[in-house]
Amino acid sequence: MWDKTSKALEDILEANDKIATVYNYEASNLESTPVATLTGSANEADYHTTTENSRVYSFMLRLFVDRPSGEEGEYNAEGAMKSIFFYLIFSSSFPMNRLFTLL
Predict the structure, then answer these.
(1) Are 19 and 35 within 8 A, CB to CB?
(2) Residue 25 phi, psi (nearest 5)
C-alpha cells in the first residue's frame, strides 16, 4: 500500500504544469526548477479488529525554486513558491479527499 500511495501522490504532482520535475527521493542535483521531492517519512498501524484496522502513511513534500540575488529576484522566487503551494493545496489538481478514493 505504501508504494501505491506514493505513486498516486507522485502522479498528482507530475500532472501539475507548475512543477518542472518530481523526484521520489531526496535529489542532490536539481537540474531545473521548480522541483518537488516526495519521500516517505513515517507509517503507523493500529490493529483493533478486521474491520477497524487503520494505517497512516506520512510523506514529506519539498518544493524548490531558484532564488536569484537581488530584491526583485527574491520577490519573484517567493511569489513562485507561494503560487505553487496554493495551487497544490487549493486547486482541483490536488484533491486530497479524492486521493483516498484512488487507492
Answers:
(1) yes
(2) -155, 170
Contact predicate 41/58, CB 8 Å: yes
Residue with the bigger pLDDT between 62 and 95: it is 62
DSSP alpha helix (H) spans, the chain: 2-14, 71-90, 96-102
Residue 7 phi/psi, 5-degree rounding, is: -65, -40
At position 102, the amino acid (one-letter code) is L
Quick: pLDDT tens for 81-98.
888 877 777 766 555 545
Encoded amino acid at 90, one letter: F
Which is it for strands 35-46 and 54-64: parallel, antiparallel or unpaired?
antiparallel
- Compute how many other C-beta atoms are within 10 angstroms of the C-beta atom of residue 72: 9
Helix (H, G, I), strand (E, B) or coil at 15: coil
Q: What DSSP character marks residue 67?
A: -
What nine digits make up the cell of 48?
483493533
